[in-house]
Amino acid sequence: MENLLSLSFDYLSSCDGVKIRKGLRQLEGLLAQICLSRTTTAAERRRSVIQDGVSKSRPKDLASLSEDPAFREFFKLQEGFEWNVAIRLISCLERLLGKGSNGQNDLLLVSTLDLLRGVLLIHPPSRSLFARDIYMNLLLDLLDPSSCPAVQASAILTLVTALLEQPNITRCFENLDGLLTVTSLFKNRGTGREVKLKLVEFLYFYLMPETPYGGQNHVADEQTGLRRSSSKSSRIGSGGRGKTHGEEGTRTTEEKQRSLGRYLNNVEDLVEDLKETAPFGASFG
Question: Using an 8 Å Cβ cutoff, are 171 and 245 in contact?
């Protein structure tokens, strides 16, 4: 696995778009092997074709991953800086962003963001990278009104994944005027409908009650059979640059409502809708 990661990293560090795309595909193939189950019998393959029209691999359930040697090896490799995929994808984003907006470059940006989201979901400790100002600013830069709508939409989803169950990273987002960035894009007349819908979904997510540190991660650890060390998580980001935000306390929906209200009107309507519909499984006391 180290050889495959090393080859992929070499491609990702290239300035050639073709090589970058090849590196992304290699990483995507590796993650697919780890996360997808192949239909092993002829009967299963026929059933898959009948139901879906094509033969598809099925996602593995979370409980079975603890018994998967490939997943365990990948997870452990991600704990150190040398083999961490997220940091390589972030570095790739930095270089691509510096090239400006054009069709091929935008496609690479979207592909890199899509893959980064997957890595952050498979290896949650990698989210700690976005507690660093420089990496959070990178996501916010992708939300510039001049960015391609597809890039903006993918960056919003990646931002959600980075903030998921990470109050300290949410504080970093707030301290870097992330709310101003998001609401400015929402109010911009040139922002398309699809992107605005994604922004509304983000605001619902942002206003949700925050999970205390260790609340949900402990459940995930029990399901996968893998425990994550905070010291290991800190080592992932040790090679980065810029200020890092430590563990700050959680904020209530009411506190975040007041913060968001400085940039957007009628935030109370969003909160009421959030309490009534409880999207994402949110629960309010």
Answer: yes
Q: What is the DSSP string of 217-238?
A: HHHHHHHHT----HHHHHHHGG
Convert 54-80 to b/e letters by CB count within 10 Å (16 or more is b): eeeeeeeeeeebeebeebbebbebbbe
pTM for the model stands at 0.80
Asked if residues 243 and 193 have their Cβ atoms less than 8 Å apart, the reply is no
pLDDT of residue 59: 66
How do residues 161-201 score in pLDDT, each as one tens digit?
A: 999 999 999 999 999 999 999 999 999 999 999 999 999 99
* DSSP character at residue 244: B
pLDDT in tens, 47-105: 544 454 444 566 666 666 667 788 888 888 899 888 999 999 999 999 999 887 788 99
Phi/psi for 19 (5° steps) reads -70, -40
Q: Is there a contact between 35 and 59 (Cβ–Cβ < 8 Å)? A: yes
